Amino acid sequence: MALFLVVPQTPQSNMMSPPSRNRMLMCPPDYFRIEYEINPWMSLKNPADQIRARWQWDQLYTVIEEKLQAKVELLDPQPGHPDLVFTANAGLVSGKRVWVSNFKYPERQGEQTFFREWFMENGYEVISVPPELAFEGEGDFLRMGSLLFAGAPFRTDLSSHIFISKELQCEVISLELIHPKFYHLDTCFCPLNDRSALFVPDAFSPSSLKILTACVDHLIPLKTTEANLFSANAIVSGNKIIFQRGAETTRKKLENEGFEVFPVDLSEFIKAGGSAKCLVLWL
Ligand code: ARG
Q1: Annotated active-site residue in 81, 161, 184, 190
Q2: pLDDT, tens only, 71-103
Q3: Any catalytic annotation for residue 179?
């Protein structure tokens, strides 16, 4: 796999606008279920408790509004689309432009219409990624300061990194994911600020680990038990961070770094292979 993808600098370079960090998109879990198995966390034999899922999602919503003081926009839930709650996979937002996802698996492809409609109704310029390219939006593309990291190949094709790099006229740093449990970049890498990030060492190929080490001043590894609690799937806003309850080592490390930590229980969503960060999209 190519490691760095560098689009030649042009006068228009660095057209990527970071999201505002005070507005986000969520989708209530009315139809959230485990109806299929498209990642190693999902098992039809381990259904999500719908009442508990609703309560957990409400808790997350409340912490976001009250502690992060972010404005939450809501997408209407849709029957037959149980994973629509994972709005991080809606697309990649840059200012008022959005590249809408092309889901890898047919089970989620029907969601694209609802995300597309929401963005159109809310004044975004909606841009399509070529249909033959798998692309799962902010699940696989994460900003860190002026850098844009992207994961492949489980859900997003490497060719999508090249496409997005050209569209945004910015450099994309491609990272090869090798662990099926950490199939999206946002399950194993979490930028905290311009210089620090949480990461799951086992999730990356040796060459991608070298790249991460070269690009990030302060990499904080997650131990396996806490990686499996989706500790990297955190919502970060300034010095505030929300992630799954129970990851005490990570919590202490973050507090030592000056973060205010807000633990939430999202156990029902972990059964679907997602947690806090997957349930939101920064707008
Ligand atoms: N069940 C969903 C899927 O497999 C979970 C998506 C999690 N989203 C994320 N951004 N990591 O697609």
Answers
A1: 184
A2: 999 999 999 999 999 999 999 999 999 999 999
A3: no
